[in-house]
Amino acid sequence: MRYHIVLRYVGIILLIDAAFLLISGIISFWQADSGFFPLVYTAIIAALFGVFPFIFVPSTEEISIKEGFTIVVLSWILSCLIGMVPYILWGGEFTLTNAWFESVSGFTTTGSSILTNIETLPDGLLFWRSTTQWIGGVGIIIFALSILPSMGKIGMTLYRSEISPLAAVNFKYQTRKTLRIIMTVYVGLTIAETVLLMFCGMDLFDAITHSFATVSTGGFSPKNLSVAHYGSIQIESIIIVFMILSGINFGLLFLTFSGKAKTLLKSTIFRTYLVMLFMGVVLVAINIHGTVYRGWGETIRHAAFQVISIGTSTGFASADSNIWPPFSQMLIIFFTLLCACSGSTAGGIKVDRVVLLWHAIKKRVTKVQHTHAIVKAKIEGFSIDDDVLEASLLYIILYVGIVFISGLIISFLGIDIMTAFSASAATMGNVGPGFGLVGSVSNFANIPELGKWILTGDMLLGRLEIFGLLLFFLLKFWK
Q1: Are 403 and 83 spatial neighbours (Cβ–Cβ below 8 Å)?
Q2: How many whole angstroms separate alpha carbon 244 and alpha carbon 13?
Q3: How high is the pLDDT of residue 24?
């Protein structure tokens, strides 16, 4: 392991963080708010830590897979550490634990918050809070590679260390072209949503921050009541559309926008994703009609927004789902675990793995019926290797196991079982809100400090898809 090389490329990530901190500081200066000095001081700190290894460590032609994993994990952890500094310097509700929680929640696009009054934050700090999601949504490393075209083979190694193996299957291009596709879709969706939200009455600041939160499927809103603050069907409808789009594999979206919509429609994953969201909305609407809302219009409006918000791991709120019937809450917990497609900005187990699980079950049933048959699982005519099936099944088991253990520990800290389990599932899936004390219009302020540290661990495990972070902490990895 060449640690100096690792520091060089982690330094590049810190320089990018410094640039966005400076932009947030400029907004604070323009608004003459109290966020200016915390943001600028942090930008200077990030720039100093980033620039020295970048200047004094020579570049190299290649890095190993081990070095790539180390760069990826350290970039996430150090970005979260830098991200918490302006919160601590500003003060308010931000203790050390709370600042770490808010920073990790932002960069991992979880959207869970410890803030009881978001609107007290200055605009510059609110913009930084939203920016952490936008950087984290596309992936810190992928963002860096997209603006640093000279990294060559190193870029390929880092890209493979960052992106989910399931997502990589859907990008049948060279690394550089794949990165251009991801960033084109990502930036394009952000700009389009910003314009449409402004057209519906949002000011520029709110439109940008909500677009950052939607396209990254992060869910941080600068308003205490989230999207419910606006009480606008038009705004909710636009956000619903962009939440659905942001939950689709970006490679498929790019092909669709390039005039190859048939590719999207032929995708088993995409069709499963849409059908599951549609069925979720229908079932929740039937369940809450008459018990929570009288009219069908209001019922469908809130059922669609809440289910799609959770089902894409965005976490915005248009209503208080804590008061919904148990059936609706259980369905929302199901979507909290599942979420959207690989190759999107969403978290969770992913629809792709659920489809693979279904094919693995069919394969096993066929083998039981026909013992000597040679059975191959197939999706869209392509055979799936047994290694891929095994990896997906192992991931699902490990994922659910981590959610259960985290929920168990948090319940031991004196938190009720619904809050403990839903908080664990929501943070592991990078979703945001749960139920109980951490409901859609509540926050995580009442979770004990140890619980907050456990939940931030869940956020990082979910964002790095478990194995990357676990590998980093294995002793054999460093030998």
Answers
A1: no
A2: 29
A3: 97
Residue 249: phi and psi, rounded to 5, are -55, 125
Paired with 378 in beta bridges are 383
Question: Which one-letter amino acid corresponds to residue 92?
Answer: G
pLDDT one-digit tens code per residue, 390-402: 888 889 999 999 9
DSSP state of 60: -
Contacts of 241 (CB under 8 A, 6+ apart): none
What end-to-end distance do the CA atoms of the chain give, in Å?
8
Helix/strand/coil percentages in the chain, nearest 5 = 70, 0, 30
Under DSSP, is residue 442 helix (H, G, I), strand (E, B) or coil? coil
On whether the CB atoms of residues 80 and 110 are closer than 8 A, the answer is: no
Residue type present at position 366? T
Please give the model's pTM, rounded to 2 decimal places.
0.92
Average pLDDT over residues 437-460: 95
For residue 383, the 8-state DSSP code is E
Tens of pLDDT, residues 43-63? 999 999 999 887 877 777 677
Q: Which residues contact 287 (CB under 8 A, 6 or more apart)?
A: 324, 325, 327, 328, 331
In whole angstroms, how far apart are CA 365 and each of 41, 170, 374, 375, 397? 61, 28, 12, 10, 20
Give 55: exposed, middle or buried? Use CB within 10 Å, 0-12, 13-18, 19+.
exposed
Q: Any idea what the Cα angle at residue 319 is, between residues 317 and 324, rounded to 5°?
A: 120
* pLDDT tens per residue, range 213-244: 999 999 999 999 999 999 999 999 999 999 99
- What does the alpha-carbon distance between residue 162 and residue 142 come to, in Å, rounded to a whole number? 7
Q: Are 114 and 101 in contact (CB under 8 A)?
A: yes
Q: Report the distance separating Cα 443 and Cα 454, nearest Å.
A: 16
Q: Token pair for residue 138?
A: 């596309």
H-only helix segments in 148-249: 152-162, 165-170, 175-199, 204-215, 233-246
Distance CA 105, CA 99 (A): 10
